């Protein structure tokens, strides 16, 4: 019992900085919305559309983080003298992929944004905002590599310190550029994009400084990565990036479905989705911690220990997510009253919000074990399972139940509850089969 408590406390110690860092990102998004919202609904809508387009671009390089982290954790566990070699490969890929994507996206920004909105004034704001943001794509990709390396070495508190510092800078820089304070140009909504990009580059410099100081002896920037190392990193990064891209697209399809029902369903669904994405962050953070612990154990060829780390992280996640879900289950009207003032919208969202609370708990196994499997190098398995369940099961069934048979928002959310349950059961099955339990 004492040993179990020690293991779970280690999971929580590694996961807590990651969770707080992710939470700070969500808080920053709310602050940005409040700042831009003071400029009017057109500016807010434009930044929302531009921000979603940037999210899709970021998804294309997101897999670099897990690819670098999985390799670093296993090399650390195997006591390899150069655990930073995957970081070198990741940084080279980040530049090789990020720069062409940046140029293409900046050039084709009007066309890309037009796919998301045809409103002229919103389109104009969104294009300007997106162009400022997409300049930072290579810096984001490189930052993901640094984050993956240091998380793989189990220095997760470093991620928290840097990301919080970057977010604080972002707020002050964005305020100055949006409203023209402190002698800065008054850029309006575009200032939010410029401020975010500038803070990301400052954060990249911080990561580089820390890594030069603390990782050179582990092989950082000592040699060019081999073609085999680059290929291995790409093999691990591509499935996760592909998964993130289509997972995000799935939410766009879900919003479109709700728009086929009525405007009220879109409004309530948007709030429910954002609440669920916020409250699953502890599960994701615990999963990222499990990724490092599983990779480290497999590097030492401790397969049984790696398997146990997945269960330890999942046990903590179930307890934490159940606690977070309680207010949604017990006080749905009070929570919805924070977002809506019309009783009709609160009534519409009451049962779906309770279903969302249940989903969060049911989703724990998928959230944690997906990350743990990536620590074992099973990114392709995670991608195939996640996307097939979302695109072949949930979305078609949600359309059939909610739109075709006119069961509306409640019907779609009931389908989503079943989908989350089946998705978690599938990940539990894969985890218990242990076909992943071999080092990279």
Automatic annotation (TrEMBL):
Q: According to its record, how does it sit in the membrane?
A: Multi-pass membrane protein
Cellular location of this protein?
Cell inner membrane
Q: List, alphabetically, the InterPro entries matched.
A: MATE_fam, MATE_MdtK, MdtK-like
Membrane-crossing ranges are: 43-68, 89-109, 129-150, 162-184, 190-212, 233-259, 271-295, 316-339, 351-370, 382-402, 408-431
Which CDD domains does the record cross-reference, listed alphabetically? MATE_like_7
Q: Where is it mostly found? A: membrane
Q: Which UniProt keywords apply?
A: Antiport, Cell membrane, Ion transport, Membrane, Transmembrane, Transmembrane helix, Transport
Instruction: Give yes or no: UniProt keyword Zinc.
Output: no
Database matches in Pfam families: MatE
> PANTHER family of this UniProt entry?
FMN_FAD EXPORTER YEEO-RELATED, MULTIDRUG RESISTANCE PROTEIN NORM-RELATED
Write the protein's name.
Answer: Multidrug-efflux transporter
Species, as recorded = Halomonas llamarensis
């Amino acid at each position: 019992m004492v040993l179990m408590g020690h293991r779970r406390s280690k999971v929580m110690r590694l996961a807590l900085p990651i969770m707080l860092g992710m939470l700070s990102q969500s808080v920053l998004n709310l602050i940005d919305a409040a700042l831009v919202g003071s400029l009017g609904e057109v500016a807010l809508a434009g930044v929302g559309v531009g921000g979603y387009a940037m999210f899709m671009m970021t998804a294309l390089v997101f897999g670099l983080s897990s690819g670098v982290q999985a390799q670093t954790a296993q090399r650390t566990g195997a006591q390899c003298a150069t655990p930073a070699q995957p970081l070198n490969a990741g940084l080279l890929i980040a530049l090789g992929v990020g720069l062409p994507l940046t140029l293409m996206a900046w050039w084709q920004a009007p066309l890309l944004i037009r796919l998301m909105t045809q409103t002229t004034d919103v389109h104009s704001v969104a294009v300007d905002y997106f162009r400022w943001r997409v300049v930072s794509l290579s810096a984001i990709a490189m930052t993901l590599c640094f984050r993956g390396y240091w998380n793989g070495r189990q220095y997760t508190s470093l991620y928290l310190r840097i990301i919080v510092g970057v977010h604080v800078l972002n707020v002050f820089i964005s305020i100055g550029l949006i409203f023209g304070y402190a002698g800065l140009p008054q850029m309006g909504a575009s200032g939010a994009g410029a401020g975010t990009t500038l803070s990301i580059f400052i954060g990249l410099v911080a990561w580089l400084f820390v890594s030069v100081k603390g990782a050179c002896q582990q092989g950082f920037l000592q040699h060019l990565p081999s073609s085999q190392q680059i290929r291995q990193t790409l093999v691990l990064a591509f499935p996760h990036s592909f998964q993130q891209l289509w997972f995000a697209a799935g939410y766009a399809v879900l919003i479109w479905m709700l728009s086929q029902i009525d405007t009220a369903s879109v409004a309530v669904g948007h709030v429910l989705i954002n609440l669920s994405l916020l409250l699953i962050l502890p599960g994701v953070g615990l999963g990222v911690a499990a990724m490092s612990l599983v990779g480290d154990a497999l590097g030492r060829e401790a397969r049984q220990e790696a398997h146990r780390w997945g269960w330890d992280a999942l046990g903590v996640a179930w307890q934490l997510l159940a606690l977070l879900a309680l207010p949604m289950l017990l006080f749905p009207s009070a929570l919805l009253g924070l977002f809506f003032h019309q009783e009709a919208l609160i009534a519409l969202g009451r049962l779906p919000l309770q279903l969302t609370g249940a989903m969060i708990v049911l989703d724990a196994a998928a959230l944690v074990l997906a990350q743990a499997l990536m620590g074992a190098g099973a990114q392709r398995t995670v991608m195939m399972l996640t996307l097939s369940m979302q695109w072949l099961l949930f979305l078609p069934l949600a359309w059939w139940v909610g739109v075709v048979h006119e069961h509306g928002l409640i019907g779609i959310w009931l389908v989503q509850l079943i989908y989350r349950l089946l998705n978690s059961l599938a990940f539990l099955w894969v985890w218990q089969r242990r076909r992943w339990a071999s080092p990279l």
